[in-house]
Design brief:
The complex is a heterodimer of chains A (173) and B (299). Chain A is mostly helical and 173 residues long. Chain A has two domains: 1-96, RNA polymerase sigma factor, region 2, helix turn helix motif (Rna Polymerase Sigma Factor, Chain: A, Orthogonal Bundle); 98-173, Arc Repressor Mutant, subunit A. Chain A has seven helices and no strands. Chain A has helices at residues 3-25, 30-46, 55-84, 105-113, 117-127, 133-140, 144-169. Chain B is of the alpha+beta class and 299 residues long. Chain B has one domain (28-297). Chain B has helices at 4-10, 28-39, 53-56, 93-103, 180-190, 199-210, 217-228; strands at 46-48, 50-51, 63-65, 112-125, 128-141, 147-153, 156-163, 213-214, 234-240, 246-254, 257-263, 270-277, 291-297. The longest helix of chain B has 12 residues, at 28-39. The chains are: A mainly alpha (173), B alpha+beta (299). Chains A and B meet through helix 1, helix 2, helix 3, helix 4 and helix 5 of A and helix 1 and helix 2 of B.
Chain lengths: 173, 299
């Protein structure tokens, strides 16, 4: 297959997975998700000659960079919109605030949010994108052993935060 | 107790079998994105600016062209907000909806896929004062489900592209219904909302609908009835819109901004939507009375 055909196949196969990756990190703000996903595939198109045979972790890596840029750009806009108070995004009308009230989603998200961005990312890649350690390493641009170590430490810290929240709030699961 | 990864897995906000971003065939927007990449090889450098209009508008991409250099100034001065004519008599939305229903009896004009919209939206960047970007967008669909999009910005043709046949059954690409309940559900789906729309959300969804479809008399009548039931949308009198058309204006005020809906007094069709700042925001270089975005639709 040509590079163009490989790209088209990867786009069709992974468009929704990349959309979920971005949505999970933008709290589902739909117009921003669509913009970032479009940007991810535009970058991937330019670099289609580099597309590996297992493209998804590589696409997540591209998405990670695009998100970092986008978040910087959106900051200013969001501050104004929040101040005006007229945008649903400012009111947290995101489609999914977490699983239902009786599921542990809310406080697990809270525990996750207390960790460093690096810890959060390795945990999300493992639990939500369901990547193995080798694939996590591709996304993060590090070696497998480093990725395994980061995951191990991040899990421990997440566990500690969960335990702390349960003590404070008496949350059950 | 489940281990921490299990707990985290169970708190995944978007899953492959979920209602949003779940696995499946590409939707219309995604197909269009792929077509664009495969068939359109433009090399123009673009930069991500944000546009407040994009908060409500849509297809409207927030990518705006970089102004051509440090010394360039926008070719068009920021237009002023529409002015309600003094002593004009406001017409209630109920009256207008009744008129629209009467006009729609013979079913003409008919609904047409595609749009012709002229918009002015405030664009911002981190290191420059806000600029108003005028844009004209014409989308025409052909009998074989292919379509042509033409974008003109500041007098420059940005895009004039024909896309291969495509379809979608998801609003706002799906055909809009012409009954009030159907249209209400359609607009709610357009905004991805699970709850009934507030008036600002409704107006935003109307803008999105009109950026995709040129409504027929029946759809306009249903929309007028729907708008007549919107909370806080107050008739204020007559305006002349930026295209020189007479319209009746309806205003919704909210913290920091004002939304104005402009409707055709002869047919009850929506002519335009305007969002205006009502408070100074010096940090962002905007003043009360500045127009955040304005869209005018024509057939």
């Amino acid at each position: 297959m040509s590079d163009d055909e490989n790209f088209a196949a990867a786009y069709r196969e992974h468009y929704w997975a990349v959309s979920r990756y971005v949505a999970r990190r933008l709290d589902g703000r739909s117009s921003e998700v669509e913009e970032v996903v479009a940007e991810v595939f535009t970058v991937a198109w330019r670099r289609r000659a580099d597309l590996p045979s297992t493209p998804l972790p590589w696409l997540y890596g591209v998405a990670r960079n695009c998100l970092a840029n986008a978040v910087r750009g959106y900051g200013r806009r969001r501050r104004l919109v929040d101040r005006l108070g007229n945008d649903d995004r400012a009111h947290g009308r995101q489609v999914v605030a977490g699983p239902d009230a009786d599921a542990p989603g809310g406080w697990v998200h809270e525990a996750l949010a207390r960790l460093s961005p690096a810890d959060q990312e390795v945990l999300r890649l493992t639990a939500w994108e369901e990547l193995g350690v080798d694939e996590v390493a591709v996304v993060l641009g590090c070696g497998s052993r480093a990725a395994a170590m980061r995951l191990h430490r991040a899990r421990r810290r997440l566990r500690a935060e969960i335990d702390r929240l349960m003590v404070l709030g008496g949350a059950g699961c | 107790m489940a281990d921490e990864l299990e707990l985290l897995r169970s708190a995944n906000p978007f899953t492959g079998d979920g209602p949003r971003y779940g696995d499946g065939p590409l939707d219309h927007r995604a197909e269009r994105g792929l077509n664009r990449l495969l068939h359109e090889r433009r090399s123009r450098r673009r930069r991500l600016l944000w546009s407040l209009a994009a908060a409500t508008a849509v297809a409207a991409t927030v990518l705006t062209l970089v102004l051509s250099g440090p010394s360039s100034t926008p070719a068009v001065a920021a237009p002023r907000a529409l002015v309600v004519q003094a002593h004009s008599t406001p017409v209630s939305l109920k009256q207008l909806a009744a008129l629209a229903a009467a006009v729609a009896v013979d079913g003409t004009p008919a609904l047409r896929r595609g749009t012709h919209v002229q918009s002015w939206s405030l664009g911002m960047s981190d290191d420059k004062p806000p600029v108003t970007v005028p844009e004209e967008r014409i989308v025409r669909w052909n009998a074989d489900d292919s379509h042509t999009e033409r974008d003109v910005e500041n007098g420059h043709v940005l895009k004039d592209t024909t896309y291969p046949p495509s379809w979608s059954d998801v609003p706002p690409d799906a055909r809009p219904p012409h009954d009030v309940a159907g249209l209400r559900a359609y607009l709610q789906e357009t905004t991805y909302s699970k709850t009934p729309l507030t008036t600002p959300e409704l107006l935003s969804a109307v803008g999105e609908l009109l950026d995709h479809w040129t409504l027929g008399a029946r759809e306009s009548a249903a929309l007028a009835r729907l708008l007549a039931g919107a909370d806080g949308l107050r008739p204020v009198g007559e305006v002349t819109d930026r295209l020189g058309r007479h319209g009746q204006a309806y205003v919704y005020r909210q913290s920091g901004s004002r939304l104005m809906l402009i409707m055709d007094p002869a047919t009850g069709a929506v002519l335009g939507l305007e969002t205006t700042f009502t408070k100074d925001q010096p940090e962002y270089g905007v003043k009360a009375g500045d127009v955040m975005d304005y869209s005018a639709w024509t057939r």
